[in-house]
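User: My advisor, Dr. K., asked me to get a structural model of this assembly before our group meeting. I'm new to this, so sorry if the format is off. These are the inputs:
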Amino acid sequence: MKKKVVITGIGVVSPLGIGHQDFWNNLVSGNSAIAPMEGLDLSKYESKNGAEVKDLNTEDFLGRKGLRYLNNGTKFLGSSAKMAVDDANLEIDDELSNHTGILIGSSLGNFAQTTDYFHDIIREGPSEVSPMKSYDVALNSSVNYVSVFFKMKSFARTISSGFTSGTDAIGNAVKLIQNGKAKVIIAGGVEQISLDLYMIFYLQKMLATGNEISMPFDKRRDGFIMSEGSYIFVMEEAEHAQSRGAKIYGEISGYGSLFSGNRKSDIEKRVEKACNAMKLCIDDAGTSQDNIDLISANGNSGKLSDLIEANAVKELFGEKSEEIPVHAIKSTLGESYGASGAAQTASALLSINNGLVPPTINYDEKDPECNLNIVNEKHERNTNTVLINSFDLSGNNSCLIIKKHE
Amino acid sequence: MPRVVVTGLGLVIANGIGVTNAWNALMNGKDGTAELKSFDSSQYKVHRACEVKDFKIDTVFENETTANTIHKYTYTAAKEALRDSGLGDIARSNRERAGIAIGTLAGELPPFEYLLRNTPEDKANGLDMGVALTYPPSSITTLLSEDFGFEGPNMVSLNACSSGNHAIAWALDLLHEGTVDVMLVGGGELIPQTEFTHFHNLKALAPDKCQPFDKERKGLVIGEGAGIMVLETLDSAKKRDAEIYAELKGYGMSCDGHHMTAPHPEGAGAIVAMSNALSMANLSYEDVDYINAHGTGTPLNDRMETLAIKSIFKERANEIPVSSIKSMIGHTMGAASAIESVVSCLAINNNAIPPTIHYETPDPECDLDYVPNEGRETEVNCVINNSFAFGGNNVTNIFSKL
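Assistant: The format is fine. Below is the predicted structure of the whole assembly, which you can bring to the meeting.
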C-alpha cells in the first residue's frame, strides 16, 4: 500500500498576489495580471506585455540579513517557502530537520544572474567583479539558500525539465515521501522573468502578438504571455500530518510523465504521448477518467500546444470531453514556465477547498479544433479530483492528480 | 522491488575519449591537465584546466552554436553506452519505459559566452537563435531523447557538483517503482568562463595541478567531459542476455543546511549521505572495498571527507583504499559524480583501482590509504562513490558486483 502524500501548506509569490488568498481572489475574479513589463527594457522589441510579481516585501518573510545579495528568484522562493511553512503551522525542529528536504523545479534557475555575472566579467575584468556578486549565481543557489534558511538536513534537489519542471518536482517529491526518503518536502516551482527568458521565447516567436493577451483555446490565440513567480507547498506524509493535527488541503495521488519530442515528431505523435501521459497519471492515482471532475489545462494560448492538448483530452475522454470542465489559469496569470505546474497545483487545491473553478478569461471565440468544455466564467462546482496537465514545447508531458483528502 | 544493474558505459574525459582509452589512462595515472584553451585566461592567475583533447564530433549539429554545447559530449558518451549495452537506439524496447536523467552544474553557458565575448555592449547579443534553442538546461535531455528515441520521463539535475549522482538517484527510484525498465543517466559539463571565474575568485583553483589529500594541496583544477551509463532492471538485462558491469545498490542523500558555499567542518552531511547509502543498499561498512572520493583537492573538502570516512568506516578506515580521479581529470563539476560512477563500475569489472596522482606530502589530517600515484589491482566487489556539492548538497551511491 502506497503512503498517502498530502499538502498542508501553500506559499505563493505571484503576479496575481502575494500569499494564496490574494492569488485565489484575483484568479477566481478573472483579474488579469498582464500588463506592459516594467522590469525589462524592451524598447527594441515588439512584445511588451508580461505578468510581473509586484509588491513583494521580502523582509517580511526572510528578515533583513543578506537580502541585498539575493536575486529575485531566491526572494520569490524564500518568501513563498516561508509562507508555506507558516501556513502549515510546521515547526522544523532538530529532529524534523533530519526528515525534511527541498525539491524545486525551475527551468532556468538563476541562469539570468549567471549570465549577468559573465557580462560583468567581460566588461569590468575578472578581478574587478566582487565575490559577493557570485553569492547567488549558481543555477541551484536559490534552493541552497532555502535549505540553509530552514536548516534542512534530508536533501536538496533542483530539477529542470522546461515548462514541466515544477510539475516534475512535485511528482518526484510524492515518490520520495512514499519510499521513505523524507517525511516532509518543501516542493514546488519557481521562475523569474529575465531578458534571457524573454529572448528565448521572443526569438522563437512564441509570444503573443497584436493586443498581447493570453487567450487559451480561443480561435484568435497566437502565443503566450510571459509570467513569473514561486508556488511552494509543504508536502507531507499523511500520517505525519494527521498526527500533528495539521489542516490538509488535499492529496497528490498521481503523477505521470512521457516525452513526445518536437523536432522529429508530428502532431499525431505529440497528441498520442500527451494522452498517454494523462493515462499513466490516472493509473498511478488508482482512479479512472470517470472520476476526474476538472481538468486544469496547460493551455497557454500557444497555437499548436493548445491544439495538441485539446486533441489529447478528446482522445482520452471521448464523448465525455465535451462535458468535463476544462480551465486554463494561464489566461489570467500568463505562462510562468518552470513554475506553471506548481501554480496550477495551488489553483487545484484551492478549487477543491472552495468549491469554485476559476474562469478561462478572454475565451470568446470558440476554436472548432479545440472542442472542449472551456469554463469561461467563475463556476461553482464541488470538485474532488483535478487532473493537471503540464506540457513542454520541446516535448515533456507531465501530469498530476490532486484530490480531496478523505 | 526490482534489482537495478549497469549494462552500458560511456566516457569523454580529459585523459581519454571512450571507456577503454579513459580507463587505461586512469589506471596509468595519466594527467589530463594542460594549458587552458576554452577561452583567453590572460586576465587570471591560473591558466590550467582538464579539457577534452582531440575530440571529433560524432553527430550532425545544426549550427556552430549548438556544436559548442554539452551535447557534443553527452551525445558521444550516450552513444557509446547504448552500443555497449546492446540497446542501440532502443527501437526494440518499449520506448515509453525508457527515460533520461542528466546532471550539469552550468548547463549551456559557453555558447552564450562565446557570442557575448565578441559583442559585449549589450547582453542580448549573447542570445541568438542557436543559443535560444539550447539555452534551457532541459535541452540536454530532450536532445538526447530525440537522438535515441527515448519516450519516458526526462530530467536535468541542477545540483552543482552532485548533479550526476542526483540524476542517478532519481533514475534508481523510477526503476524501483516500476515506472521504467531502462534509464540513460549521467552528467555533462563544459568549462564556462563564468564558473572558472567563480572558482578563481573564491581562490579555489590550484595554480598547476590537483593534489587531493596531499598536505600541499592548493585547490581544484577545473575540468569538462561526460560520463553516461545505462541502468536497467535485472529482469530486463537478463531477458536480453546483456553483459552486466555492476549492480546499483542504493544511494544516500543529505543536506548540510549549514552554509551557501562552505562544507560542514566535521562533515555531518557527508556522514549522513554515506550512512543512508549503506542502509538503502542493505550493506555494512565492512562490505566496502573501495571509496571513490569526492576529493576535490581543496583544503576544506579533503579534510572534511577524511573525517567523515573515519566516522563511517571506524577501524576499517585505514585499510580501505580511497582515491580521487579528480587528480587526473580535474573537477568536472556537474558531470563529476556521473563520471566517477562510471569509473566505480569499471573498478568492479576490472578488479582494479585508479590512483590519486600528484600525491607527494602526507597530511597528518588526511591519513588514509589514498592509492598514491599508482593504480592497484585488487579484488573490488563494492564501491562507494561520494559527491559533496557547494551548499552542502551531498549524494553518495553504491555499486557492487552482481
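One thing worth pointing out at the meeting: Chain B has twelve helices and 15 strands.

User: Perfect, thanks a lot.
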